[in-house]
Design goal:
The structure holds two protein chains of two kinds. Chain A is an all-alpha fold. Chain A has 17 helices and no strands. Chain A is globular and about 50 Å long. Classes of the chains: A mainly alpha, B mainly alpha.
């Protein structure tokens, strides 16, 4: 399809009407239980004839539907591979844990045509790291060694997360699409802030936090790590003075509000794509909006299953793109 | 055939070429957007078809100016152009619709694409959506008027 996305964007414009809105999320948050939520989603067209009202199957079906749609719009593998970076690295992280502790958590993986649970577990069980994509080989081996020798799941996660962020930043620099550059850069910056917050709250050292942070253009890694290693107050001051005052305010409220800000800020950064008729932007934004929808519904269903009060569910509900 | 006749014919040809190419461009890109909307919501076919067709008028304007020119320079009627100056005048008279038709149709096509996006999301806003590309039409009509006035008043 080349760089002509007029047809694809027009289709997306119609489909944007079917996206969940903030009021849908508010309505679902107020429902009595998970069954009521799945019934509501089913009425909205979620799931298919095979899923019934099984929440896990319904969410997996929505993921597959979205992937199929994006492929049918002629979006190339170069773009799809960027959009699925975090999912692929999440699958690698989960596979490392499954292989090292001989666990089996099929629902913890994202659906992916290549980098799925079987792909990673087969390779990791055989320690055949060379079969992985080049950028994953070293961090996967390192993370596996940390897990097998020191049983340090947190350190293992840090290694994979850092590798994921480095890869995102590298792809952001190379991408010719502004929306992908902005999305990746924003994601890396927000994730760095998240890591710094966790580091500050758990009293990690400067070196530990600095190693976990990925270099990005928005934030100074050294200063952020230093602020986080000092105390939360220093970190809040740094964030307030570097264009992330909203993050600092959210953090002052609660960690849940901060986590919500992290996801919401990414959605807000793609919202202007609703007015672009000629670029790939609206298609990418739709995809990201759908992923945000699916993950919010997943959180909502989990909260409902565990009997969280309505206010707690609302606090965790992300802002919708629709 | 005199140089004047060649110039007059060139003007007539440019009127059709400019308007036609611009319209093909505009209708083409608007058609892609219209097809995208219809693929997901066939009920909007009539509305998006109208928006797709809006950039098609420049081609018709160019054709009209070409017909008038041909009917005055001895091809379909009138008297043959024998002097170079008159030929230049016909060429210059055809240029407004040739150039303005080309550019306005292209931009009208792009505006139609944006308006089709409005219809896709809010079908009830069709009236407002149609006004945006219709605004671009103004300048094609002005160029058409000038070309017709000029062609019909030569000689």
């Amino acid at each position: 399809m080349g760089d002509n996305y007029i047809f694809a964007v027009a289709r997306i414009r119609v489909l944007e009407k079917s996206l969940l809105t903030d009021s849908d999320i508010a309505q679902m948050s107020g429902m009595s239980d998970a069954d009521a939520v799945t019934a509501y989603l089913s009425d909205k067209g979620w799931g298919d004839e095979n899923t019934g009202r099984d929440p896990q199957k319904m969410l997996a079906a929505e993921q597959v539907k979205t992937d199929k749609l994006i492929r049918s719009l002629g979006v190339g593998d170069d773009i799809l591979s960027i959009l699925s970076i975090s999912q692929v690295y999440h699958n690698l992280k989960t596979a490392i844990k499954d292989v090292c502790v001989e666990g089996d958590s099929p629902y913890a993986y994202y659906e992916h045509p290549v980098y799925n649970a079987k792909y990673f577990t087969d390779i990791l069980q055989e320690k055949n790291y060379r079969a992985l994509p080049a950028e994953m080989q070293k961090p996967a081996e390192e993370a596996m060694n940390v897990m097998l020798e020191h049983h340090d799941g947190q350190k293992s996660d840090v290694i994979i997360d850092r590798a994921c962020l480095d890869y995102m930043e590298a792809r952001a620099k190379k991408s010719k699409y502004p929306i992908l550059r902005d999305y990746l850069e924003r994601t890396v910056a927000v994730t760095d802030v998240k890591i710094a917050v966790r580091g500050a709250r758990t009293g990690k050292t400067y070196e530990y936090i600095r190693d976990a942070l990925a270099p990005c253009r928005t934030l100074d890694r050294d200063i952020l790590a230093k602020a986080a290693s000092e105390n939360e107050e220093s970190l809040l001051n740094y964030l307030s003075g570097h264009g992330m005052a909203e993050a600092a305010d959210a953090l002052k409220t609660s960690i849940t509000a901060f986590e919500k800000w992290c996801d919401d800020s990414i959605i807000e950064s793609i919202r202007p794509e609703k007015t672009h008729p000629f670029t790939i932007g609206p298609v990418v934004a739709f995809y990201l909006g759908r992923m945000n929808e699916i993950s919010t519904v997943r959180v909502l269903l989990t909260a409902k299953k565990n009997g969280f009060p309505e206010e707690a569910v609302k606090e965790r509900a992300r802002r919708m793109y629709g | 055939m005199s140089t004047g006749m060649v110039l007059a014919l060139l003007g007539a040809a440019l009127a059709t070429i400019g308007g036609g190419v611009g319209s093909a461009w505009g209708v083409g890109i608007a058609g892609q957007a219209a097809a995208g909307v219809t693929a997901e919501d066939p009920d909007q076919f009539a509305k998006v078809l109208i928006l797709q067709l809006l950039p098609g008028t420049q081609g018709i304007y160019g054709l009209l100016v070409t017909f008038i020119t041909l009917s005055r320079i001895g091809i379909l009627g009138g008297t043959a152009v024998t002097d170079t100056n008159t030929g230049w005048m016909y060429l210059a008279a055809c240029l407004p619709i040739a150039v303005c038709g080309l550019i306005s149709a292209y931009h009208q096509g792009k505006t139609s694409v944006a308006s089709i996006g409005i219809v896709a999301k809010k079908p009830d806003q069709f009236g407002k959506a149609m006004l945006f590309p219709a605004m671009v039409e103004t300048y094609a009509i002005l160029a058409l008027l000038i070309s017709i006035l000029a062609v019909t008043n030569i000689g």
